[in-house]
Amino acid sequence: MALPKPEPFVKPDTIFSVSDAANLLKTVVETAFPIIKIRGELSQITRASSGHVYMTIKDAGAAINAIIWRGTPLPFQLADGLEVIVSGKFTTYPARSNYQIIVSEIEMAGAGAILKMLEERKQKLAAEGLFNAERKRALPLFPSVIGIVTSPTGAAFQDICNRLRERFPVKVLLYPATVQGVTAAEEVTAGIEFFNNCEVKPDVIIVARGGGSLEDLLPFSEEIVVRAVAASKIPVVSGVGHEPDWMLIDFATDVRAPTPTGAAEIVVPTKISIIQEIENLTHRFTITHIAKLKNLSAALNAITVKNPKQLIMERAQRLDDIGRTMSIIMDNKITSAKTQIINIDRLSTIVDTRFRSINQSVEHLLQMLQSLSYKNVLNRGFAMVRGNGKIISRAADFARPAEIEFADGVVNL
User: Fold this and answer.
1) In 92-222, which ranges are continuous DSSP H helix?
2) CA–CA separation, 257 vs 246, rounded Å?
3) Domain with CATH 2.40.50.140 in the chain
4) d(CA 257, CA 264)
5) Which end of the chain is more exposed for a tag (fewer CB within 10 A), N or C?
6) C-alpha distances in Å from residue 15, one per residue of 8, 92, 97
7) Model confidence over 341-399: pLDDT tens digits?
8) How crowded is the C-beta side of 261, counted as CA atoms within 13 Å?
9) Which of these, 143, 29, 175, lies nearest to 91 by C-alpha position?
10) Which residue intervals of the chain bear CATH 3.40.50.261?
11) Exposed/middle/buried for residue 239 (C-beta within 10 Å: 0-12, 13-18, 19+)
């Protein structure tokens, strides 16, 4: 868009000091741009210790410094690359001779930018495990106390209360919270934390609001809300917007309801469904026990009760059978013992016979040894000559000293 060129108002021959020129430029800029809206992409976001936020808003051809003073409401979390529309006034900073915009309002530039921001935030929180299925808990079957975090004046709260009264009246605790605007995310977070820390804790928490635009529902996708839901020790049900609306809180809650009314229907059963379930259980219980009673009756009928005298006679007969069996066993044991005793008597005879046989064998061996001894040869007139302890059998080997053994003694030579 082409803007008209302003007429110069400074005389060419006027000489200014540096400060005067800088202040004049500041006045001109602030007068010419008392309010301006700029659309661009955020980058280089820095939050100073003072609480002020410094950043750059840029497009493909230029970049402008921007400042958000501490206390200025921020409806969403700022992030590099986010396309926004900022409203504010232009000014200059004489100390560095640059210009900048003081931002008074900031909004996202269309649904595309919002969806991109939500997708990036969703991936980040999912990577931390805040949306994992194993974190989700089952809701109590019959809750007695329900905590609701929503606006007390909104239709969502009335719809929930009406549906609870219709289905299964329970005690309701309300934490009033703004569900739209700059403070909504902090108030919803405070409500979840309040129910987790109060003395009378509800059995389940419902976070709800009615339908709205994507921008209106953004507080329910803020990180602080998602983290509060994930950290809750009490099961949380989300009922935000309508069926097509999906906020990041829906991924972190234990159960996601399509609407606030749907959230009420999820957390409590209907009276009719409870009565039907009781009737079904009663019917199943009755059928099961009737069948068991029939089986027991049949078993009792199958039992034949005998005459006591007959029972005694049967037991006596059994005792007689046991006595005869024991008698046979004892007779067998006695017979076996007698056999063993007879075998022991025979053992001594067997041992004596064996010893006599061994003595005869020894005497025979002694006789053979004597008959083979060289002593018997000496008794027949022979003699044995030894020299140096060796037997001499040849005359050529004889030498003194020597000894000659006869049958009756030894002669030394």
Assistant:
1) 110-127, 155-167, 184-197
2) 10
3) 18-108
4) 9
5) N
6) 15, 21, 18
7) 777 667 667 777 777 888 888 888 877 777 777 777 777 778 778 877 788 778 777 77
8) 9
9) 29
10) 117-269
11) buried
Predicted structure pTM score:
0.51
CB-based contacts of 274, cutoff 8 Å, min separation 6: 168
Instruction: Give the CATH superfamily of 117-269.
Output: Succinyl-CoA synthetase domains (3.40.50.261)
* φ/ψ (deg, to 5) at 63: -145, 145
Q: Which residues, 6 or more positions from 319, have their beta carbon under 8 angstroms from its beta carbon?
A: none
- Name the token pair of 252: 């972190």
Q: Are the CB atoms for 269 and 142 separated by under 8 Å?
A: yes
The CATH superfamily of 18-108 is Nucleic acid-binding proteins (2.40.50.140)
Strand order from edge to edge, sheet including 204-209: 171-176, 145-150, 204-209, 236-240, 255-256
Chain segment 70-95, per-residue pLDDT in tens: 888 887 778 887 888 899 998 888 87
